[in-house]
Amino acid sequence: AFGLVMVYSASSARALLGSDDPAYYLKRQALFAVIGLAGLVVFARTDFRRLRQSAGPLVLASFALLLAVLVIGTTVNGARRWIPVGSFTFQPSEFAKVALALWAAALLARRPAPQSLRELLRPIGFVVGAACALILVEPDLGSALAIAIMAAAVLLVSGTPLRTLAGAGAITGALILAAIWFEPYRRARIFSFLDPWQDPDGAGFQSVQAMIALGSGGIFGVGLGESVQKIYYLPESSTDMIFAIIGE
Q1: Nearest-angstrom CA–CA distance, 1 and 74
Q2: Which end of the chain is flanked by fewer CB atoms within 10 Å, N or C?
Q3: How far apart are CA 74 and CA 40, in angstroms?
Q4: Edge to edge, what strands does the sheet with 79-85 contain?
Q5: How many Cβ atoms are within 10 Å of 225's Cβ, its own excluded?
Q6: pLDDT 10s per residue in the chain (248 long)?
């Protein structure tokens, strides 16, 4: 409920200008919330063991979608991460997160947890790594990181030794640093995070404007719906930068 109120507060002005309906994004978000709650009720009443048989097909479907998005996906701000379905779009990487979690859990329920890097690599490391590689091509480093962390959590609770996870983490960390360093926009984003005021009108623009929004709101804020930054300065104010709008 709090999220719906904040989405309306952050998006009403843009929705009014773009579609003549200030509640446009609120209605979409409310629809997704209802679908999510319905799914919650259904799966809460379903024996989770029945999901084991669907784990393999779901992973195959997720890989098919990750390949498809590179061909038919919608490009937004230079990234091809979304597949349009009618008036909606969805990210295959979000589907892959759930599919890989189910697959890894089902696999580790049938066999002992990997005790070495070699055992970890086959097949969990290979499958998760392949999915992350496809997601990095989109490019979407954040989702790839989320999947890697999810896989590590599943391995941890399955009994994988910490030394094995530490070794895998070191390799993953090195690959992440390479992915950041050899991609100019990611490298610029890291440097702007460390010092956004060095380029306040370029790479550091969003971070600087977010800090201005939080500072303008002070402790108690300027009031619900009264944010100035959401209209004039902060891009993606109702999605990526909504925390700054809430703070203001």
Answers
A1: 30
A2: N
A3: 29
A4: 74-76, 79-85, 88-90
A5: 13
A6: 888 998 888 888 888 877 788 888 899 899 999 999 999 999 999 988 888 889 999 999 999 999 999 988 888 777 888 888 877 788 999 999 999 999 999 999 988 999 999 999 889 999 999 999 999 888 888 899 999 999 999 999 999 999 999 999 999 989 888 888 888 878 888 888 888 888 888 888 888 888 998 898 999 998 888 888 887 777 777 778 888 888 88
pTM: 0.78
Count CB neighbours of 104 within 10 A.
22
Using DSSP's 3-state secondary structure scheme, residue 79 falls into strand
The helix (H) or strand (E) run that includes residue 58 is: helix 52-72
Which conformational region is residue 80 in: left (phi greater than 0), alpha (psi within -120 to 50 degrees), or beta?
beta
Residue type for 34, please? V
Is residue 164 a contact partner of residue 141, using CB atoms and an 8 Å limit?
no
Structure tokens at 164: 């094995």
